[in-house]
Design brief:
ten-stranded antiparallel sheet, mainly beta, signal, 2 helices, Lipocalin-like domain-containing protein
Amino acid sequence: MHHSIHTLATALLLSLAGLSACSKDTATPTTASTPEQLLVGQWQQTTSTNGMTGRTSPADPAQRLKLVFTAAGQLTMLLNGTVVNTTPYSLVKRQSMLTQQLETYLVTDPGNTQVLQTVRVDANTLVLAIDAYDGPSATYQRRILGSNSLYW
């Protein structure tokens, strides 16, 4: 029970702290070269890491979290196939409190600069992490389907 509450809380925190659209000029994961291009698509949560303990746990199969990023800058979060949040998003570069390096951040609420999520993304893996010493993180795998269905 504690594990599933932690996973859900982490997922909601990551989505609130901050429809895959197909078009001919949208880069595919294998040809994308920027974080903005790589982020576009459908992502299924696979693990979460507790920022306090450093313990990484598999995503709870009863709490299927999916993130859908569009090239038009929309983020949709689904929990067990039900849309729970849709919001505009952007990526910005800022100095990390943790690494003191320039990092890419996901911004879902431009007015909230207190809780920021770093973004590490490649063709198949997305990691969102709260930029804090005890911040949680979540790892997602890209899902490529034959249709644009949000509900898989």
